[in-house]
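Standup notes, structure subgroup. Blocker cleared on the zinc ion input:
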Amino acid sequence: MGVDGGRHVVIMGPQGAGKGTQAALVAPRLGLIHVATGDLFRQVMASDSELGREIRRYYDRGALVPDELTLRMLMERLDAVKQEHPDARGALIDGFPRNQAQAEALDRAMAERNERIVAVVHIAVPREVLLERLSGRLICATCGATYHRLFNPPKQAGVCDVCGGQLYQRSDDTPEAVERRLAIYYEQTEPVLRHYTEAGLRIDIDGNQPIEAVTEAILAALRPRVEAA
Ligand code: ADP
Ligand code: ADP
Ligand code: ZN
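Run returned:
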């Protein structure tokens, strides 16, 4: 990563806004590495460990994992990204921060690490559309790629286009857990956007368009910020 240690972008928006879908498409085109806290948790839960069992107690209910544990896992991953991808500009951080305390902890961590958040992309999508998207979401068990039964189907049913892995429906994409996650989003996460408006970092994108149109809008908005020296 650059001499100043890392220039990261945060991607925000409600569940189903298309953060994971867009992050996978834009990160490679911007020299960023996609880091999703939800993916970190799903990986740990896939191994039968004490930590995995602890995370599952929160995850399956659609509740937030405690802030301190989440921040620690994110920072460990940022360290690993730096080691594994020395030429990357930074990370595209998806799923963090989820509340004001996490936003403030992220600011402190960035200052300590001599790294920066250079932009915060907010993907806006109306609630009715989110419910439709989440009920048909499919995830690759191997690489984490995201599909939709109707809106973005894989070439072969049940099989990942990218890696051939098996697709599954997430254990927290049930109507009850979706309701809880969206309620937490509107109560705790959406208010954090103000923090980034004040910092001059916020970029709003209309996420209620075809996937490719959203990608182009994000790239057009991010390129000048990410590519600036
Ligand atoms: P998030 O990471 O914000 O929760 P995802 O990227 O997982 O959202 O997208 C949620 C679901 O909606 C997935 O099934 C995905 O394939 C689908 N999807 C994403 N973007 C669009 C779009 N622009 N139009 C229609 N469906 C979409
Ligand atoms: P979604 O945005 O669709 O809820 P994610 O994959 O981002 O999905 O997160 C899934 C779950 O992982 C969350 O419901 C929560 O239990 C946990 N999680 C992810 N990110 C965080 C975070 N920043 N703080 C606390 N818990 C988190
Ligand atoms: Zn895959």
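Discussed briefly. Residues 7-126+201-226 form a domain with the Rossmann fold fold (CATH 3.40.50.300).
Next: hand off to the docking folks.
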